[in-house]
Write a structure and sequence with these properties.
Blueprint: H1 2-12, E1 14-18, E2 23-27, H2 29-32, E3 38-42, E4 52-56, E5 63-65, E6 68-71, E7 76-86, E8 89-97, E9 105-113, E10 123-131, E11 137-146, E12 149-161, E13 167-174, E14 177-182, E15 190-193, E16 199-206, E17 210-219, H3 227-237, H4 246-265, H5 268-283, H6 291-302, H7 313-327, H8 334-349
Antiparallel strand pairs: 1-2, 3-17, 4-7, 5-6, 6-17, 7-16, 8-13, 8-17, 9-10, 9-16, 10-11, 11-12, 13-14, 14-15
Helix pairs in contact: 3-4, 3-5, 4-5, 6-7, 6-8, 7-8
């Protein structure tokens, strides 16, 4: 039994040397697919136009419109993010096709160099989604291009059943290994050793009218974007916690502290997670009410009747349902009292009156 436990312990702790700090850290599955660096999210607005270089085999170049990037021509088209070179990188994009039953063939470039307008004009790996025999069947392929020559498919999964309307494609390159993800899955569909090399990242559309949205890149070449979480921390700190229930005030305080730790970690994944947790804690804040205030609200609501059909049926019935619940509440539970008192106050204030007939 001791030997088995020792094996389990060793297998659960993988020690990896971090050469930047000359220390060791334990890693888990999530860490395997995370890279260092900041994050940029691009919505393909007009001001984003110069962040990319555009290439087309012939005809119209890719273009930005309505916060999307369109590869509209039946040709090989390339959209290359020109702001930085990356070695380890995490690239994600939503892809769409304008023809549900037509051709679908697009992907993500990594380690890209020497891009040009000619077909296969680059040196790069490209993680590609291609439509299969029927409209909901796809192939996930890893293409390689060398010196403007197609070097073949390095890895492939066939007969993937995926929705046609919208697909998410994600390529993570870490320590020379490419991990291929689809539709926000947490486990890659495959991995492949591509070696360690710097290059540009970008998008490819091959003879299919597609458009792209929600392009995100995480990597060392991008500055850390802290502004959103800093704004949220400042917003949360402005609340007077004495006006809220102890439980929600405590949760918010913990979320603020965790956000500060994430901010100092310079890890964009931690920052994003902490920001989401802080937003949720802020939204869950419950204003404090006493049992006496609840009784006052019950008394006020009880005096309201709808004999003359002054209020709409739905708004009045909603008030009566909440009033019945509040009448059953006993003193002692701060969270329950505060929540239902606020709900009842809201139902009173949101009663909808019919317009006088003379105004109709």
């Amino acid at each position: 039994m001791k030997i088995v436990n020792l094996i389990l312990l060793i297998s659960s702790l993988i020690l990896v040397k971090n050469t930047a700090f000359n220390t060791y850290k334990s890693t888990n599955l999530e860490d395997t697919y995370q890279v260092d660096g900041g994050k940029i999210s691009i919505g393909f607005d007009e001001e984003d136009k110069d962040l990319f270089n555009y290439y087309t085999e012939f005809d119209t170049y890719p273009f930005l419109m309505d916060s999307k990037c369109y590869a509209w021509t039946l040709a090989e088209q390339k959209i290359v993010y020109n702001q930085s070179l990356f070695s380890d990188v995490d690239v994600s994009v939503d892809t769409y096709t304008i023809n549900k039953d037509g051709k679908f063939d697009c992907g993500i470039y990594v380690q890209g160099t020497n891009f040009s307008n000619v077909i296969d004009g680059c040196s790069a790996y490209c993680l590609n989604l291609e439509k299969g025999a029927d409209k909901n069947t796809f192939y996930l392929k890893l293409h390689q291009f060398k010196n403007s020559t197609y070097a073949g498919v390095k890895k492939e999964i066939a007969n993937l059943k995926l929705p046609t309307e919208q697909l998410n494609l994600r390529a993570v390159v870490k320590n020379g290994t490419l991990y291929a993800f689809v539709n926000h899955e947490s486990i890659p569909r495959f991995s492949y050793e591509i070696g360690i090399s710097q290059g540009y990242v970008g998008l490819r559309s091959f003879y299919s009218p597609n458009y792209f949205d929600n392009f995100t890149v995480i990597g060392e070449g991008i500055p850390y974007y802290k502004s959103d979480i800093e704004v949220m921390i400042d917003k949360a700190n402005k609340l007077d916690l004495s006006k809220y229930t102890l439980k929600t005030a405590t949760n918010l305080t913990l979320a603020i502290n965790e956000a500060r730790v994430a901010l100092d970690s310079f890890n964009q994944y931690d920052i994003d997670e902490a920001l989401e947790n802080l937003k949720n804690a802020y939204d869950d804040m419950q204003e404090l009410r006493s049992f006496a205030q609840l009784q006052d609200a019950i008394l006020e609501a009880s005096k309201i009747n709808n004999h003359d059909e002054k209020y709409t049926k739905n708004s009045y019935e909603a008030l009566k349902i909440v009033l019945d619940i509040c009448k059953k509440i006993v003193d002692g539970n701060e969270d329950e009292i505060s929540y239902w008192c606020c709900v009842l106050e809201g139902k009173i204030s949101s009663l909808i009156e019919y317009l006088p007939k003379e105004t109709l």
